[in-house]
Amino acid sequence: MFLEQENFLVQAFADDFVILLKASASYRFTEMSKEIMLKFESWATKYNLVFSENKSKYIMFKVKKTITHFPGIYLYGKRISYTNELKYLGIVFDPNQSFMIHLDRIQEKIVRLNEKLRRITRATWGLRPEMVKEIYLSILERIILYGVEIWYRDRVKMNAKLLQIQRYPLLSITKAYRTTSNEALQILSGCVPIDLKAQMIVEMDSNIRGVALSDNTHSIDFEIEERIKPWEISRISWDYFANMCNRFSVFTDGSKMNGKVGSAFVIYLGEDEIDSFTYRLSDNSSVFMAEVFAINKAIDEIILRNLDHVDLITDSRSALMALDSPFEKRVYVNSIKRKIVNYSGEINLKWVRAHKGTKGNERADYLAKLAIEKQEIDCLFHETRTETRLRVKQNMIQSWQTRWDSSKNGKVTREFFKKVCVKRVQGDFYLNQIYTGHGIFRTHQYRFFSKTNVCHCGDEIGDMQHVLLECRLWSIQRNQLKIKLNNSLKILLGQEKFRIFCRFVIQSLLNLEIET
């Protein structure tokens, strides 16, 4: 149900109704709502429905001025109560439209779910980190980013709140100390900062849905779709090519080499070539787009010349299947269907296997490759959805890398992992104390808990370098490794023997701390 006029809008989804009113002053809403609510009541009575007065609420969105007057809006003679937060279709609205209250509710939900998750994944036992990460990506992250296209604003306060919410599941994935920075947790878990993920989704939605207008109005949107009425659906059948007859034959082909795209078609009368056409397409075009473009241009030329009984031959089976599909929604492809159906002559589509020595096909293939070398582009295509997703994701990863390079936090982690990676999952409780510098080492205990920074051996300050490579308490175990220890910790941790040694040392230190 949808109803819209100048100053009000009615929208319904399932059993949820929303009425939007617009006025220059809040007191006007009382009179404006009377007639609308009466119509609602009569409509409900007609269909034996009853609206709940207790569940019905109203909220006012302020514009510049503070709300001082609250209008009386009535349902079944009972005044509807005002609320500062109204939930509709899973999104919580507030008077300022800041959506910070929405994020507060999301945070409460994530905390509850994360606590349940922690029952089956602890520091040294439970689900593997890879499984916990999959749960985060498949469930928790989607809960956080639900409706992000509606509520996200690229503001410091909102971004900070999102990172705060993301922190809970990242701690469960990495099993790191709670003092570890967000930046280090993101690197260890391989999870993109959620504010960058939100920006990516909003940008992707903006591009794909066409909210962001293209600068070039002459380009073709190959993927724009249309709704076709069932009785207007058409299928263009095709057959296998045998040989050229004593009539017109048109061979089409598309090619992509070295990032450039070309398209061409050749017209034959019997065995004789009478004309050919070549086009260079924008570099973002795919081979499929080039093949369909060639078919479209060939049909235009057939119609222009008013040729009768024409065989149109292509080696693109995917293009022919698109023309034969009753479920095809792309406007560009369906326009080709209409041209063939409405043409007074006869156009027979045929498929030929590529690179089998067929004269016309080899000629069209040669011309398509020749078209690639043209300096000027003959046809511009919009960026496809796949390309949009890839570009936006690449930009997101680059932004994450830039943020990581310039971050003042996670300096120890940066020594081990300089590059961001979404495939990385470091969830070892013991090793992550080395990767972050946050753990049982005395330097960390001194920094955060005001304990002594002297090592248990009493010789030096108890930092990672000393404990793992120099401390006499572990000299016997260290000598048994039989590996060169003059390398950096980053290189040494690449060896399984040294990782086992590190786990043993850290576990022993934990036991010492408990005993003391």
UniProtKB/TrEMBL annotation:
Instruction: Give GO terms: molecular function aspect only.
Output: nucleic acid binding; RNA-DNA hybrid ribonuclease activity
CDD domains (UniProt xref): Rnase_HI_RT_non_LTR (cd09276)
Domain named Reverse transcriptase: residues = 1-75
Entry-linked Gene3D superfamilies: Ribonuclease H-like superfamily/Ribonuclease H
Highest rank taxon of the organism: Eukaryota
Q: Name one GO biological process term.
A: DNA replication, removal of RNA primer
List, for all copies, the residue spans of the domain called RNase H type-1: 244-373
Q: Which PANTHER family match?
A: RIBONUCLEASE H1 (PTHR10642), RNASE H TYPE-1 DOMAIN-CONTAINING PROTEIN (PTHR10642:SF25)
Q: Which family does it belong to?
A: Belongs to the RNase H family.
Descriptive protein name: RNase H type-1 domain-containing protein
Q: Which gene encodes it?
A: R1A1-elementORF2_347
